[in-house]
Amino acid sequence: MAKQDPQELLKHKHEQDDHKRQFTNYSRSVSGHTEMEAGQEFSQDHVTDDQNRMKSVENKRT
After folding, report:
1. Contact by Cβ (8 Å): 35, 43
2. Where are the domains positioned within the chain?
3. Greatest CA span in the chain, whole angstroms?
4. Residue 55: what pLDDT?
């Protein structure tokens, strides 16, 4: 296995991060209304999990 230069890996990671940032900015400008970054878990289309809720209720009783 060839050794990988840490500086080269870091440079590549920064390039990928820059590409992601550019894509995110582009997609936000095109789509208009979007959710905040890292806020997907608070979207309005979330369906509650009754099985987990009922298990929590059951565990509180015992």
Report:
1. yes
2. 6-59
3. 58
4. 74
